[in-house]
Automatic annotation (TrEMBL):
This protein's name: CHAT domain-containing protein
Limits of the CHAT domain: 691-948
InterPro entries (alphabetical): CHAT_dom, TPR-like_helical_dom_sf
One Pfam family here: CHAT
Length: 965
């Protein structure tokens, strides 16, 4: 400011001060005098003449007080005060001034043309330098002032979305990222084809979607991001000013997809990743040595080469990678916001070279660089995760070379810090906990059990963020390499002599998707008697959460985002209610993974035998009614043996249909003899010896992994007694066998029965559902179905008023209604297990399939018993056997306490013999005053398979299994 200007401003201030002095408090021109003086002083402040801004604002407030609403100069006073507050906000970064300025502008909105103060408000927002909560809130308030058609709205939306994404990178709040994506979708919609800013709007939206993919692992986000990046690149042809940005961004998205698609063959992986690297190299050629973006492209190219080196072992990549990282780090000086990433990346590359060359200077430098990156970041910054992981890599690599236990301890400590770093996304942390468990097992470190437990907790939390059953399944499938962790965790606990913890870990890791769904149906009887208000709140929130769940994919991505956000809000409210319940006396473990004492309730009516198939060891844990669990080791059974046994059973069953009964028996009997000798006989020895279990007692089998595909209940030596007096007893001669998917499932079924018994007695009702002629492409005609239905209906006691549903009436909707309205159900039709998407496993009806998902969505607390006379109703998905996702489990989840299911194909021509013998046994004592009791089903099935021994081939006798109470 020139001396002449300063002199003029001082003269002006003195003049208006003199005018004010001549206007007493009640003078009609006093407000104008106050305003003029304050405006002169404000002008000096804006032009950097050091006037007192606080006293200036005080003058404006006094003027406004003298001009109440309705005064002709009211709007002038509002605006001048807002302007002064805005100036102080910009100068001193005081958010409270910004808020008040915005509120004053809101008051002005209906009173005067908006352009004047909206431009002023944009100036306030443009002055924001720090992405803080307050500043973001201020920008939200500014955005509310721009209507949808206002010319200033796109820029305000874009500015807020950018700051929200920046805030997300600093604090890891998914809410910020969701809002950023929503706003950036609006910008894209405003920039239609041909708009000069469309390429930028596409790039920005895609970048936010890619960030969300990394944080939450949703494949839809990645696919959409790639599509948007590709469109943006097409709008930036060779010669375009920002082509390098699109090349960089598309390369990053394709690299993410490369990392996700580990299953493709090596040739295609090489081709796809060479394409990624070529994008980065092209981008680099477009950037001069002094270009401000060059450091980012150098870093991205180096990351890509590192990935190719680690995955495809292209040895020449490593040295180039290190040189690129060093150059990128040189360009990122100490005040650069991305410097910490270059430090970590260079450290990781040096660690990779140390593994190859074992040069100590490389690993020592790697550790120093990673430690420097941690010092550069606040304690809650999401990127600290990557620093922990690189440190872990360095310490573990050095331990493997030098065998210093201190390095192993430091590696484990960084595994812990990374997997428990709350602001980083769950997918990264889940992968870390898996790698921690693998490393701890490999080096026999005591933290292995903690690593397993951490993995299960993180995976559970990750699946809980998904709003549909199918999306949870897709999320779980992402970690398919970790499907063995439940059995590996149990094996680890067994090897450490902690059988109780083995049972707890097994239960925590298996059937997680059933566990998540069941939480919304948790009985609240005890809580209602202790704290009815809290019980009501939890019940209502569970209902809202259940209603917010969807089972289909929404093709409208914006609507899908909104639904996911709403679901997450419901989930947060639900979690808060759970936390409140845990504060109530006696409810500290509400919905926490059950303890061994809790799980032991499953053995109340007979021991539960958990069969564990791990690469580390194979054996069984017997959970008795009381006391400590018992371990049974299988000395001659390993996981490869079990896989061969499973495959041999599948082959024998497949060939059985075309073989003579005696040949079929020979093959199957040989396999069942192995099951008896190597698996079930050692268990029986403990049951008879240590537990003194009486013959014909109930036992429950809980198979895992490869055991789930083996007919354990049919184990039989097929040998004669030593005295030739008859055949040796088989398992089903000794005990009444049932199955349970998990111990919790059996406990829930029993609790539901107890609760039902305490209520007013509901007379049993029965329906036989059959479909002999399913709809198109659902299977061939089943000629024996109708006669089976008639047989069953006649066998049922007349007091139940048995009904049947068949032919044109046996539709999807009709079958669902029948399931809901009856306590006992017999279902005869085609059954299909979908191995790619097990929730699509179904019963074939006349018009459409009755899917497992349809069944799971029902809640039928009065249901009791279901006989599934259909194929493949009790066998789960081969890829994730420990999720136990099959039709029989779905019926049990929906409310049926006792279910008969099948392990493979059922021959409808001979099944009627088993069905007849079963129901005759079930109802044999009704005429003597007995009652229909679904708990008799296991004994009735045991009786039926013995009764039809001479009428039904072996494969069809052992196909049926009992699940539940």
């Amino acid at each position: 400011m020139t001396s002449k200007t300063v002199s003029y401003l001082n003269d002006t201030v003195e003049h208006f001060q003199s005018v004010l002095d001549q206007c007493p408090v009640d003078h009609p021109d006093r407000a104008a005098a106050l305003t003029n003086l304050a405006s002169a002083r404000l002008r000096g402040h804006i032009q950097k003449d050091l006037q007192d801004i606080d006293s200036t604002i005080s003058l404006f407030r006094k003027a406004l007080a003298l001009r109440p609403q309705g005064h002709p100069d009211y709007t002038i006073s509002l605006f001048t005060l807002a302007q002064a507050l805005g100036v102080r906000y910009l100068k001193e970064d005081t958010a409270v001034d910004g808020y008040e300025a915005v509120q004053l502008c809101r008051t002005l909105l209906p009173l005067c043309p908006e352009g004047t103060f909206l431009r002023f408000l944009a100036a306030i927002a443009n002055g924001v330098h720090n992405v803080t909560d307050d500043n973001i809130q201020l920008q939200r308030m500014e955005l509310e002032l721009y209507s949808l058609g206002h010319t200033g709205r796109p820029r305000a939306v874009d500015r807020l979305s950018l700051d929200l994404r920046t805030h997300f990178t600093q604090w890891g709040s998914i809410d910020d990222l969701d809002e950023s994506i929503r706003l950036r979708r609006e910008v894209v919609s405003l920039c239609s084809e041909g708009h000069p800013a469309r390429d930028t709007s596409l790039d920005n939206l895609a970048s936010s979607l890619l960030s969300r993919f990394h944080h939450q692992g949703k494949t839809d986000d990645l696919n959409e991001a790639i599509s948007l990046f590709e469109e943006a690149l097409s709008l930036r042809p060779v010669g375009h000013e920002y082509r390098y940005v699109s090349l960089d961004n598309l390369g990053g998205a394709l690299r993410a997809r490369f990392n996700q698609c580990a299953g493709i063959d090596d040739i295609n992986r090489v081709i796809s990743f060479d394409h990624v690297i070529s994008l980065y190299r092209e981008a680099l050629t477009l950037l001069a040595s002094e270009h401000p973006h060059r450091d980012t492209t150098l870093n991205n190219l180096a990351v890509a080469l590192t990935t190719r080196y680690n995955d495809l072992h292209v040895s020449e990549d490593l040295d180039e990678t290190i040189n690129l990282f060093r150059e990128s780090l040189r360009l990122r000086q100490h005040d650069h916001p991305e410097r910490h990433r270059s430090l970590v990346n260079l450290g990781s590359a040096l660690c990779s070279r140390f593994i190859q060359t074992q040069m100590n200077e490389d690993v020592d430098e790697a550790i120093r660089l990673c430690q420097d990156s941690l010092e550069a970041l606040p304690s809650l910054h999401p990127d600290r995760y990557f620093s922990y992981m690189s440190l872990q890599q360095a310490y573990l690599s050095r331990y493997r070379v030098q065998h210093n236990l201190v390095d192993l301890s430091l590696a484990v400590e960084n595994f812990k810090l990374a997997s428990k770093h709350a602001t980083q996304g769950l997918p990264y942390r889940i992968i870390t906990s898996y790698n921690w468990a693998v490393a701890a097992e490999q080096h026999d470190h005591e933290s292995a059990l903690e690593a397993y437990s951490t993995f299960f907790e993180l995976l559970d939390a990750h699946l809980a963020t998904r709003s549909s059953t199918t999306s949870r399944r897709e999320a779980a499938a992402t970690f398919r390499y970790a499907i063995s962790l439940p059995v590996d965790a149990a094996s680890c606990a067994i090897r450490r002599g902690n059988l109780r913890y083995a049972v707890e870990l097994m239960e925590q890791g298996r059937g997680q998707q059933w566990s998540l769904a069941s939480r919304l149906r948790t009985p609240l009887d005890d809580l209602e008697s202790t704290n009815p208000k809290l019980a009501c709140t939890f019940s209502e929130l569970s209902k809202h959460l259940s209603e917010a769940q969807g089972s289909t994919v929404n093709t409208d991505r914006a609507a899908a985002d909104q639904a996911e956000t709403q679901y997450r809000k419901h989930m947060e409210e639900w979690k808060a209610a759970v936390a409140d319940i845990r504060k109530v006396d006696g409810f500290s473990r509400f919905l926490l993974p059950p303890s061994y004492t809790d799980l032991q309730a499953a053995a109340r009516h007979g021991p539960v035998i958990i069969l564990i198939a791990s690469k580390y060891s194979c054996g069984a844990i017997i959970v008795p009614k009381s006391g400590e669990p018992h371990h049974v080791y299988f000395p001659r059974i390993t996981l490869p043996h079990l896989k061969r046994l499973k495959d041999n059973f599948a082959k024998a069953i497949k060939q059985a249909a075309g073989m003579r009964p005696q040949d079929q028996r020979k093959d199957l009997q040989g396999l069942l003899r192995i099951v008896w000798d190597e698996i079930m006989l050692p268990i029986v020895n403990v049951l008879e010896g240590d537990l003194k279990l009486r013959h014909r007692s109930r036992i429950w089998l809980c198979p895992t992994a490869e055991f789930t595909s083996i007919p354990l209940h049919a184990a039989n030596s097929s040998r004669m007694n030593a005295d030739r007096s008859g055949p040796e007893p088989c398992l089903e001669d000794l005990y009444i066998c049932s199955y349970t998917p998990t111990l919790s499932a059996l406990i829930r079924a029993r609790q539901s029965m107890k609760k039902q018994a305490m209520k007013k007695h509901v007379p049993p009702s029965f329906v036989a559902i059959g479909q002999s002629k399913p709809g198109a492409r659902q299977g061939k005609e089943l000629v024996a179905v109708n006669s089976e239905l008639e047989l069953v209906r006649k066998l049922f006691p007349a007091t139940t008023s048995p009904t049947s549903l068949s032919g044109e009436d046996a539709t999807r909707a009709g079958a669902l209604e029948a399931l809901q309205q009856n306590t006992w159900v017999h279902l005869a039709c085609h059954g299909k297990q979908d191995h790619k998407q097990p929730y699509n496993s179904h019963f074939a009806m006349r018009d459409a399939s009755l899917t497992l998902l349809d069944i799971m969505e029902q809640d039928i607390p009065h249901a009791e018993f279901a006989f599934l006379s259909a194929c493949h109703t009790a066998v789960g998905d081969e890829k994730t056997p420990d999720e136990v996702i099959h039709l029989a489990a779905g019926l049990q989840f929906s409310g049926f306490k006792s279910v008969i299911g099948t392990l493979w194909v059922v021959d409808d021509a001979v099944v009627k013999h088993v069905v007849k013998a079963f129901y005759e046994k079930m109802f044999e004592d009704l005429e003597d005053g007995g009652v229909m009791d679904c708990k008799k089903a296991a004994r009735a099935l045991n009786h039926a398979t013995h009764t039809v021994k001479n009428e039904v081939p072996l494969d069809q006798r052992i196909v049926f299994v009992h699940i539940g109470v």
